């Protein structure tokens, strides 16, 4: 993906915990869309959200901030899949241990 590619966010709202699939670059310009999607889920009363981040090609501090904001709102993010890029960014930011993991 080239710099400036748009983010894609798909939300599955079954009977249980919502699943959010994110692809593309999560950066300063695209993070607000992710924040809006995650805030909508929190506003619905969900206390957990599953995240498939396997197709995220770039994650900067704005994207990490979106996950931290979710935690502050009392919603536990559970990462079901993540790209190496995401895993590395979360590790470097020191927040990997704050996020749930599931396979």
What does this structure look like?
The model has no long low-confidence stretch (mean pLDDT 90). This protein has helices at residues 31-43, 61-72, 84-93; strands spanning 8-12, 19-26, 48-59, 76-82, 100-101. It has one domain (17-101): STAS domain (Transcription Regulator spoIIAA), CATH 3.30.750. It is an alpha/beta fold. The protein is globular, with a radius of gyration of 12 Å. Helix 1 packs parallel to helix 2. A five-stranded mixed β-sheet has the order 1-2-3-4-5, covered by helices on one side. The protein has three helices and five strands.
Gist?
This protein has 103 residues and is α/β, with parallel strands linked by helices. The chain has helices at 31-43, 61-72, 84-93; strands at 8-12, 19-26, 48-59, 76-82, 100-101.
CATH class: Alpha Beta
CATH superfamily assignment?
A: STAS domain
- Extract low-pLDDT stretches: none
- Read across the widest sheet, the strand sequence of neighbours is 1-2-3-4-5
Rg over C-alpha atoms, rounded to the nearest angstrom: 12 Å
The whole-number mean of residue pLDDT values reads: 90
Number of strands: 5
Q: What is the N-to-C order of secondary-structure elements (H for helix, E for strand)?
A: EEHEHEHE
Query: What structural category arises from helix and sheet content?
Result: alpha/beta
CATH topology term = Transcription Regulator spoIIAA
Could you tell me how far the N terminus lies from the C terminus, measured between alpha carbons in angstroms?
26 Å
Shape: globular
Helix content: 25-40%
